[in-house]
Write a structure and sequence with these properties.
There is one protein chain. The chain is built from 10 helices and 11 strands. Strands 1-5-6-11-10-9-7-8 form an 8-stranded mixed beta sheet. The chain has a 3-stranded antiparallel beta sheet with strand order 2-4-3. The chain is 33% helix and 21% strand. It has one domain: Bira Bifunctional Protein, Domain 2 (BirA Bifunctional Protein, domain 2, 2-Layer Sandwich). Helix 1 runs antiparallel to helix 4, helix 1 packs across helix 10 and helix 4 crosses helix 8. It has 287 residues and is an alpha+beta fold.
Length: 287
């Protein structure tokens, strides 16, 4: 039997059985978010390249950029957060603004198990408040949603970028990969930094809210992970990743953090924000 054309590397067709799982996951997560006061938003897949460039640090090289027939420099969106920042700057919604969005994003990285060049993100963010209760709301909604999907052992790994103040960026990136490469292959001086880190006052406040308001338990629903840094340069405070079985070394099914400076790049003023993104493809495969 003659086969049809294949898809480009890192791009794929979604079979009906997996598409159904994805739809069911989206519905349950959306219900949880709307119950927590989030509203839906949609933005274009294509942005002007200058909107995206300069926002992602070393990962900027993964942005798909091209020039259209009119000579305009365009790009496929890398995530849903920068388009959100552009939206806030342009439309000035009432703050705090709590939104969620589902959409395709594109990254020219090396495909591997659970990672593709086109994938679906499910983002939700709170824009316009620096209160720790909003960090807790984002973390709490993510945990509630994933438990609703049946992942009873899932836990949120949490750290604070403040813990790495004064640490060279190169070292922070190494620390972020400790669980991937192993402690035995990590420099001793970096292990000493990690082993001496403790939850910041900011994290203690967030943890207290998660326990009091959401009835979550530390080391059962969430845990402090001193190695967690997250790769994107725009994070300014708490950072977190959701582990399906509560193990730090696992591939995450979502991640996020506080990014108080990004939206101000477009709005020309400080607008605090915190958010989270589910990797819907990886989540559906686990389900």
């Amino acid at each position: 039997m003659k086969r049809g054309p294949i898809t480009p590397k890192g791009f794929r067709d979604i079979r009906p059985d997996l598409a159904k799982k994805r739809r069911e996951a989206v519905n349950k997560i959306a219900d949880t978010l709307e119950a927590n006061g989030f509203v839906p938003l949609e933005t274009p897949i294509i942005e002007f390249a200058e909107t995206l460039v300069g926002k992602y640090g070393e990962e900027e090289k993964l942005i798909y950029q091209f020039t259209d027939r009119g000579g305009r420099k365009l790009a496929l969106r890398y995530d849903l957060t920068v388009p959100l920042a552009r939206y806030i700057a342009n439309y000035n919604p009432t703050l705090p603004f709590r939104r969620y969005q589902i959409g395709q994003v594109f990254r020219g990285e090396n495909p591997q198990r659970g990672r593709y060049r086109e994938f679906t993100q499910f983002d939700f963010d709170v824009v316009g408040s620096s209160d720790a209760s909003e960090d807790a709301k984002i973390i709490g909604a993510a945990i509630q949603a994933v438990k609703k999907l049946g992942l009873a052992k899932a836990q949120m790994a949490i750290n604070d970028r403040e813990n790495f103040r004064g640490v060279p960026v190169k070292d922070v990136r190494e620390i972020d990969k400790i669980h991937k490469v192993g402690r035995e292959k990590t420099r001793k001086e970096l292990l000493e930094i990690v082993d001496n880190l403790k939850p910041t006052e900011n994290l203690k406040n967030i943890f207290a809210i998660l326990k009091a308001k959401y009835n979550f338990k530390e080391n059962q629903d969430f845990f402090f992970d001193p190695t967690l840094a997250r790769g994107l340069d725009y994070y300014t405070g708490a950072v977190f990743e959701l582990k399906p079985n509560g193990k730090p070394e696992e591939l995450s099914i979502g991640g996020g953090g506080r990014y108080d400076n990004l939206i101000g790049m477009f709005a020309n003023k400080q607008i605090p924000a915190v958010g989270f993104a589910f990797g819907l493809d990886r989540l559906a495969e686990i389900l």
